[in-house]
Amino acid sequence: MSAALIEAREVTKVLNGIVPVTLVQGINLAIMPREFIAITGPSGSGKSSLLYLLGLLDLPTSGDVLIDGRSTTAMTEDERAEVRLSRIGFVFQFHFLLPEFSITENVALPMRARGLLSSRAITARAEELLASLGLGDHRHKMPDQLSGGQRQRVAVARALANDPPVVLADEPTGSLDTMATSQVFGILRDLVTVHKKTVVAVTHDLELASQMHRRINVVDGRLAKTGGMAPSLTH
Amino acid sequence: MKLVLTIAWTHVRRRARQTLVAIAGVTTGVGFSIMMAAIMEGSQDDFIRTLVDALPHISVTDELREPNKQPANIIYRAAEFHGLTPEVRRPGIKNPMATIASLRSWVPGALTPSVQSKAVLRFAGRNLTISVIGIDPRTEADVSNLVSHMRQGTLASLYRASNAILLGDRLARKIGARVNSNITLASAEGATMNATVVGTFHSGFRAADETTGYVLLKAAQILERQTGIVNEIRVRTRDPMEARLISERIGEQTGYKSISWQEAQEDLLSAITIRNVLMYTIVGAILLVASFGTYNIISTITHEKTRDIAILKSLGFRDRTIRSIFIIEAVMIGLVGAILGWIFGYLLTRGLASLEFSNPFSDNNHLPVLYSTKHYLLATGVASISSLVAGYFPARAAARLHPVDIIRGAT
């Protein structure tokens, strides 16, 4: 059995249309526990598509994605949803918080969907996560009462709600200013170093990518180059 | 489930204006449906009740279901005869008292003999053709509501004079006759009789009140020039709805034409059935239109919430959970609309029932309505199902959304 948390085997994604478009082609990739990986590449190269395939948000046209060594190709949509709920946390470029719910309720949503904890325990954990990301004083606020950086931190808290081993982030700092970028990146780094999580982040920012364990460069849907580990993050 | 309810409730609550419009649609639909059903069924019940009260439940007349066969036809069955003079049959029910006694032994209800006759009424230079009904005042009260319809005099007043008559109040007014006025009756059989008006009645049916007079059996028999004749036995059954079955049995036993009120009014009852089909079609259409409002609001919410749906799915929400959210929103709208519709429908019905207007055919000057739980439950059922269907399709579409497409679109 593979020790990889997520493994892509010959993963190809083709968008069928009048002119079929290949987003990702023949990618083989293994993501190990406690890795901090950057997926880089030019716009339209297929890096976000790869992330969605790794996170089971999308189905490959061919190939397989294994989560904890389990093939996901033959899984039903419900089984894939269950894996997303329990094993993977997502952070997107835009915070994508539900505007009608307070930030605590937003963080609580994945826990409530999973249904393992009592309401009180869910609220306590949501508040604890928010507090750990410096948002303890804002827990009753609505998303539109927060700044962009704060909202993205709430999105990170929501991704961590069910304590998944892997967090997949799609341009998590893409819409933030320098200070917020630094804060969010610091949080993601802490997830790896402090909380022992695996973080895979799509980014355009090569400077940030250079600070991560590994850099996967995607060009025209293929893996172009895999970079080495940043010295500061060496275990 | 609690989570689904919370999300659904938040959606409808945050879109208060749209939600209220959708609820108003369902409320209006349910309210008008209840009102329509109350009026239609109320008027139908009122009509049938009046009909049942005004007419005998069963009328056994001296007509035969099939004409008598000629003796030659009975003897030579294989032959066909033409040009024979038909056998003249003496009108009236044979041995009426024995027939009545025999029927009384098993018919659940009351029976009374009567004589139906036509006569020309002459008074103060006016000639009017009227129906003269010969009755037995002692048993008439058991079969008809004539006692309660009396305005002046009583049924027993018929015994006051040798040839006494009770006139419909409109008829009396029309000819200017009063109690103790002397009128003349001339029958088609050539009999003429002077009669004294001893009372008036008012049945509420204009046709009856303008053209009917009641006399004693004996007086009607004189007009028909046949002593002892009874050409109709009227029956009032304990349960009016059993009249048809009892009537069939009476017909089989006596051989005479026995007609239940349902058979007599078959055309009207068929018309009522058609009216009911129309009513429920209209009610269904109203609720269908209301369901479009629900469909619209759920579609709008779904459309506005595509990004949220994508996020929920990316978090690991299952398709059926997403579907449930929007179906529950539709059901919430449907149920709240239906409950408000009950109140609206009740008030509308009350309002219409309180209006006064003149009715040329009867004395009832209020719209007859029927308050029935069935109408409320039916309207709620249809509204709920409509809302469910209206919510299902947008909900299904929402659950089928591909999160990647939406996330890509948003980024």
Strands, helices and their partners?
The complex is a heterodimer of chains A (235) and B (411).
Chain A lengths: L5 E10 L5 E11 L4 E5 L6 H8 L7 E6 L2 E2 L5 H11 E4 L11 H12 L4 H14 L15 H12 L6 E5 L7 H16 L4 E5 L3 H5 L3 E6 L2 E5 L9
Parallel strand pairs in A: 3-8, 3-9, 6-7, 7-8
Antiparallel strand pairs in A: 1-2, 1-4, 4-5, 9-10
Chain B lengths: L1 H13 L1 H39 L3 E7 L6 H5 L20 H9 L4 E15 L2 E10 L1 H7 L2 H4 E3 L11 E5 H7 L6 E6 L4 E10 L4 H6 E5 H7 L8 E6 L5 H12 L1 E5 H4 L1 H39 L1 H10 L3 H36 L18 H28 L2 H8 L1
Parallel strand pairs in B: 3-8, 5-7
Antiparallel strand pairs in B: 1-9, 1-10, 2-3, 2-6, 2-9, 4-7, 5-8, 6-7
Short structural description:
The complex is a heterodimer of chains A (235) and B (411). Chain A is an alpha/beta fold.
Question: Would you write up a description of this structure?
Answer:
- The complex is a heterodimer of chains A (235) and B (411).
- With 235 residues, chain A is an alpha/beta fold.
- Chain A has one domain: P-loop containing nucleotide triphosphate hydrolases (Rossmann fold).
- Chain A is 33% helix and 25% strand.
- Chain A has a six-stranded mixed β-sheet with strand order 6-7-8-3-9-10, with helices on both faces. In chain A, strands 2-1-4-5 form a four-stranded antiparallel β-sheet, covered by helices on one side.
- In chain A, helix 3 crosses helix 4 and helix 5 (148-159) packs parallel to helix 6 (178-193).
- Chain A is globular and about 50 Å long.
- The model of chain A is unreliable at 230-235 (pLDDT under 50).
- With 411 residues, chain B is α+β, with helices and mostly antiparallel strands.
- Chain B has 16 helices and ten strands.
- Chain B has helices at 2-14, 16-54, 71-75, 96-104, 137-143, 146-149, 169-175, 206-211, 217-223, 243-254, 261-264, 266-304, 306-315, 319-354, 373-400, 403-410; strands at 58-64, 109-123, 126-135, 150-152, 164-168, 182-187, 192-201, 212-216, 232-237, 256-260.
- Chain B has a six-stranded mixed β-barrel with strand order 2-3-8-5-7-6, surrounded by four helices.
- In chain B, a hairpin with a 2-residue loop joins strand 2 (109-123) and strand 3 (126-135).
- Chain B is elongated, with a radius of gyration of 33 Å.
- The two termini of chain B are 31 Å apart.
- The model of chain B has no long low-confidence stretch (mean pLDDT 85).
